[in-house]
Structures are given as C-alpha cells and as structure tokens.
Amino acid sequence: AMQEMLRQRLWLQQHGDGASLDQIESVRRSLEEARERIDQQLTRIRDARAPLVYPMTALILASTSPYRRALLERFGLPFATARPDVDESARPGEGPADLANRLAQTKAGEVARRHPGAWVIGSDQLAEVDGKALGKSGSRADAVVQLQAMSGREVRFHTALCLQRDAITHQAADVTRVIFRPLALAEIERYVDAEQPFDCAGSFKVEGLGIALFDAVHSDDPTALIGLPLIATARLLRLAGFAVP
Asked: Who is most buried in 4, 97, 129, 197, counting CB within 10 A?
C-alpha cells in the first residue's frame, strides 16, 4: 500500500499538469484506497501490541464484609459476593503473616470450587502483637482488651490477597505499620461504644473515628488497613485480563 501511494504521487508530480480530470480522479481514488489499507495495517499492529483483555468474566468477592465490598465497588466492575466456608483457626506454629496468606488462598479456593470459570477474590487481615495474631474481637469486652494491648505500641497489620480462577492463582500481600498513641481506658471505652468495631481486625475502623487512636500509619496502600489493598487488587485484576481502570 505504501509503494502504491508513492507511485501515484510520483505520477501526479510528473503528469499532473497535463492529466485529464478522469485521470486525476482515478489517482485520487487509488491514493485513498492505499491510505485506508495503511490505516488498517497500523490498527492491526496496535491491536497486536495492546494488553490482552479477556471478555467480561464473572468476578466474585469471597467475603460478605461491607468494607471490602465498598472498596471493590470503586473499580466499577460488576461482581457478586459469596461467603467462604473455611476454618480460620491457626495451625500450630503458624505466624500471623502465614496465616493471613493461607486464609486468603483458602477463601478464594473454596468459593472458586463452587463457581468454576469465575475469578474469585479472597482476602484476610490479621494484626500482629508480640508475634501473635489478633483478628476480629467479636465483642465489646474483647475489643477493649485488644486496644489496651496495642496502646502506645507499633502494630503490624498483615493483609493478604488471592485472585483465583480454577487452577490459576495470583497472590499479593501488604504489611501496614500502625503506631498507636497511648490510650486511656476511658478513651478506649468511649471509642468502642461509639463505633462498635467488633467485626474489624484490631477493633477499630481507620476510615472512621478509629483514626483518632493513632500517632502514625506507614503503608504502601492506604486502603489495605480497611481490609482490601486496592493497589494490589487492581494489579492482579489486570493480570487476569480485567480493564482497571
């Protein structure tokens, strides 16, 4: 096509002054056809180099947490939620980071087995204090105990992520360091009564009043502490072929 375009342009330069209208019109059509063929070739080249985007595939969040659901909704992708049926007990000698990673994989795997062909997001978060894991308190009394244990200390929060479809898995993990300021018992009780964070690892809601409990937060992903690290989630979804953004 490029050679044809050059040939026609050269003909116009050599014979244009003495050419008939029919001849000029014929050359013009030939040039347009050559240009269209070149555009088509360029489009095919660009498409071949573009990232592969799979057809829309079912996406499932293996969690009924309203916090994780609200975070995932930021991407604007359609998805469903499913409660994973897993035992979240730690194995003997299993540290908080390993436990969080295993639970994220187990949650994604359990839901993926029930939904073949769907991409499933599993996530888990645990706080680490003195090498031991702290999960959800579940009650006011335990929430007070957890916050007392973290008062005035640096606490690591391990948030694990797994994206799975059938036998294909992609994984990521985030570690966020939280510096709790010294907390009086009256402050802790006032906070717990205000937000009732019994379904949150560490017994606080960083997106709410819980931020007032901290001196500092050190993290690569500001959403990880809420329960779903969106930077890593977006990266894994792109690996799976989803268009994010």
From this structure: 197
* Residues 238 and 181 sit within 8 Å (Cβ to Cβ): no
Distances (CA, A) of 10 to 45, 118, 119, 174: 27, 57, 57, 63
The single residue of 22, 98, 124, 215 carrying the catalytic annotation is 124
Nearest CA-CA partner of 158 in 106, 112, 227, 208: 227
Q: What is the pTM of this model?
A: 0.72
213 closest CA partner among 240, 227, 195: 195
Three-class DSSP category at 2: helix
The helix/strand/coil state of 56 is: coil
CA 99 to chain centre: 20
User: How far apart are the C-alpha atoms of 241 and 216, rounded to whole Å?
Assistant: 36
DSSP H helices in 16-95: 21-49, 66-72
**What span, in angstroms and rounded, lies between the C-alpha atoms of 242 and 183?**
44
State the pairing for strand pair 168-180/154-165. antiparallel
Strand extents, DSSP E, 102-241: 119-129, 132-134, 154-165, 168-180, 214-218
Residue 17 appears among annotated catalytic residues? no
